[in-house]
Specification:
With 147 residues, the protein is an alpha/beta fold. It has one domain (18-146). It is 24% helix and 18% strand. It contains 4 helices and 5 strands. The longest helix has 20 residues, at 34-53. It is globular and about 50 Å long. The two termini are 24 Å apart.
Length: 147
């Protein structure tokens, strides 16, 4: 199976829940519409911030961007905060990404409770997907992008 092949519902199939990919794999994989191009450019700006201001070198990508939708509206990013992260790095990440960048960014630590750990949340059925003929237990995969 191709690493980023979508299932019959237009999502990354589960299992596995998370797929590791390099930054070079992402452009154009899910389509080349203007909305996707703009989301990709925003993602690259976010990656530049991570690379220049933090020691974080992995970001998790989900949301409508990881689907077969022609015009996705949401790209959700997850950033894992590790023990060695500095105060300066935290300050660099204290930005209104949703309002100014148009992306939803979730920061989490593996030791935080489940409600703050998006890996756990992604393994539950998504109640927003229970529309039409979609299965009640439908889950979709997400990506870990190395930067």
């Amino acid at each position: 199976m191709n690493l980023l092949e979508l299932n019959e519902y237009g999502f990354l199939p589960v299992p596995p829940p998370c797929r590791d990919v390099g930054l070079d794999v992402m452009p154009g994989v899910f389509g080349n519409t203007e909305a996707r191009h703009q989301m990709w450019q925003t993602f690259l700006s976010f990656v530049d911030l991570l690379q220049s201001a933090t020691t974080i070198r992995r970001v998790y990508v989900d949301g409508e961007y990881i689907s077969a939708l022609d015009n996705p509206e949401i790209m959700e990013l997850g950033v894992e905060l590790h023990d060695g992260i500095t105060r300066a790095e935290i300050s660099a990440l204290n930005q209104p990404f949703d309002q100014e960048w148009g992306i939803m960014v979730n920061f989490y630590s593996p030791r935080r409770p489940e409600v703050h750990n998006f890996h756990h949340a992604f393994q539950r059925p998504d109640p927003t997907l229970n529309l039409g003929d979609l299965p009640d237990d439908l889950r979709k995969g997400y990506l870990c992008v190395s930067i």
